[in-house]
Amino acid sequence: MIDEFLARDLSAVEEAVRKAAAVEIMPRFRQLADHEVDEKSGPHDLVTVADRKAEEHLTAALTRLLPGSAVVGEEAVHADPAVYGALRADAPVWIVDPVDGTRQFVNGDPAFCTLVALAVRGEILASWTFAPALEELATAVRGQGAYVNGERIRSGSPDPGAALRVAIAHPLYTSEADKRTLSRLDVPGVAPRPCGSAGLEYLKVARGEMDGLAFTWPSAWDHAAGLLLVGEAGGAQSTVGGVPFRVDRDNELPFAVGRDEATAVRIRELLRGA
């Protein structure tokens, strides 16, 4: 069933993602009223009416396209953490972050995106990264490469001798222990900086505009789409335990992403303190 769906209905998913952004997100960009922005866990963890409405829109559209599928969305999990368990079940799962980079969205910064990935038993099969304000859509299907606006992209390898450009988990969202671990990347030959929208940072690695990433949190909606995109562009990833990050299990964190295998390993070993 999934193979038939992937062969037949990818364009319908793209249309659903674009429509959710057109109807629920972009009309509210730079138009939010104060009462349309709320805090979740704290002042830096924001949710807006656009996040909620876009996730509702996508949930209805995606499950209609693939009957029997489930949705694990950021806002649904916030309301009911048990929803996350669908990632370990047998049914196909849509993993949705309706507005990745809500902080940027609230501040009127166009560097936000909508993330959708399709997974079965933890294997990510297809992904969509749509930055509506930047007019960019990145897509990937397992085994078929990575594309932006229909053109194939490849991550390549860092220039020999150049400092590795690495986006790391933003200090606003990390514990003191996480900060200490990430500080291991502050060494000669590595140029770390705080990440913005995770989805757009993954896209930069897939394009070869960044060399790597280091993340300390496991939320599937932040990583699923980007991990497939980077992998299909030629990149690699690994947890500090030396195994790939997966959305259907507990992972040893942090984990590293690189434009190529050697870069991912170098970042991982630095994070381990090796």
Task: Explain what this protein looks like in three dimensions.
The protein contains nine helices and 14 strands. It has 274 residues and is of the alpha+beta class. The chain has a seven-stranded mixed β-sheet with strand order 3-4-5-6-7-8-9, sandwiched between helices. It has a five-stranded mixed β-sheet with strand order 11-10-12-14-13, with helices on both faces. Strands 1-2 form a two-stranded antiparallel sheet. β7 (136-141) and β8 (146-148) form a beta hairpin.
Name its key features.
five-stranded mixed sheet, 274 residues, 14 strands, seven-stranded mixed sheet, globular, 27% strand, 9 helices, alpha+beta
Q: What topology emerges from the helices and strands here?
A:
Layout: H1 2-8, H2 10-25, E1 37-42, E2 45-48, H3 49-65, E3 70-73, H4 74-79, E4 93-100, H5 102-106, E5 113-120, E6 123-131, E7 136-141, E8 146-148, E9 151-153, E10 164-168, H6 176-182, E11 190-194, H7 198-207, E12 212-215, H8 220-233, E13 236-239, E14 255-258, H9 261-272
Parallel strand pairs: 3-4, 10-11, 10-12
Antiparallel strand pairs: 1-2, 4-5, 5-6, 6-7, 7-8, 8-9, 12-14, 13-14
